[in-house]
Amino acid sequence: MYPNSTNGSLPEEAIADRALTRRLREGDTDAYETAFRLYHRYLLRIAVRYLKDEDLAEDALQEVFVKLWLFRDRLDESHSIKAFLSVALKNQVLNDLRSQKRRILHHLASLENWSEEDHSTENQQVWREYLDILTQGISYLTPQRREVFRLRVEEGLTNEEVADRLNLSVNTVKFQFYHASKFLRHYLHREAAVPSALFFAVLAGQL
Predict the structure, then answer these.
(1) I need a surface site. Which of 57, 94, 131, 193 has the fewest CB within 10 A?
(2) C-alpha to C-alpha distance for 23 and 17, rounded to whole angstroms
(3) Is residue 119 a contact partner of residue 77, using CB atoms and an 8 Å limit?
(4) What mean pLDDT is predicted for residues 154-174?
(5) Are the C-beta atoms of residues 75 and 19 closer than 8 Å to each other?
(6) How do residues 25-60 score in pLDDT, each as one tens digit?
């Protein structure tokens, strides 16, 4: 619940949050991007504190923001979006902590199987198939998201440099790259069962 101000009315922050909640419930993607910008960094710090791994924390956070969008019609204007996200993150982190050991061991084993010294013909063919699937996934991104991803990955530009190049805000660049990476990680996993830990290795393979 929102705290009341001294005169019994809602503070400006609560009024703005309620307006944002209404827009989210109506399916406003700009409101979703605003929520991401407002709370991503705050939630990421919490996730990293408990999971002790930034990649796992990002994965957990991705799930939380996906749930925000999928269950936006369940948002209650009497409760803040920050509170909704915090509870969702807590539940996600608890689930991840229960399986973290198994996931880390699986990721390490996968990385060992794809060592740079392994040049067998069969593995090279599989690697090429991974790159083809990645290229296909990139083609499904929206034009702006695809261009942000290309500039960040292929040209190695910073968020600030991409923002200048495309005349966008730095936060918009971060948002677009975050969701491009999320989509491609999930796409590779769905189409080729590529573990999350190998995502960046596949990216490196296309450079």
Answers:
(1) 193
(2) 10
(3) no
(4) 88
(5) no
(6) 888 888 888 889 889 988 988 888 877 777 778 888
Q: For residue 7, with 0-12 CB atoms within 10 Å meaning exposed, 13-18 middle and 19 or more buried, which class applies?
A: exposed
Mean pLDDT, residues 162-187 taken together: 88
Q: In the 3-class helix/strand/coil scheme, how is the chain assigned residue by residue?
A: CCCCCCCCCCCHHHHHHHHHHHHHHCCCHHHHHHHHHHHHHHHHHHHHHHHCCHHHHHHHHHHHHHHHHHCHHHCCCCCCHHHHHHHHHHHHHHHHHHHHHHHHHHHHHHHHHCCCCCCCHHHHHHHHHHHHHHHHHHHCCCHHHHHHHHHHHCCCCCHHHHHHHHCCCHHHHHHHHHHHHHHHHHHHHHHHCCCHHHHHHHHHHHC
pLDDT number for residue 189: 72
Record the pTM.
Answer: 0.47
And the tokens for 133? Answer: 């699937």
Q: Give the up-direction half-sphere exposure of residue 147: CA atoms within 13 A in the CB hemisphere.
A: 10
The Cα 60–Cα 54 span in angstroms is 10
Distances from the Cα of 193 to the Cαs of 27, 87, 177, 199, in angstroms?
Answer: 31, 30, 22, 11
Task: Pick the closest to residue 180 from 151, 207, 142 (CA basis).
Answer: 142
- Alpha carbon 65 to chain centroid distance? 8
Dig out the tokens for 167 from the structure.
């005349």
The tokens 């929102």 sit on which residue? 2
- Take residue 116 and report the two structure tokens written for it: 């740079």
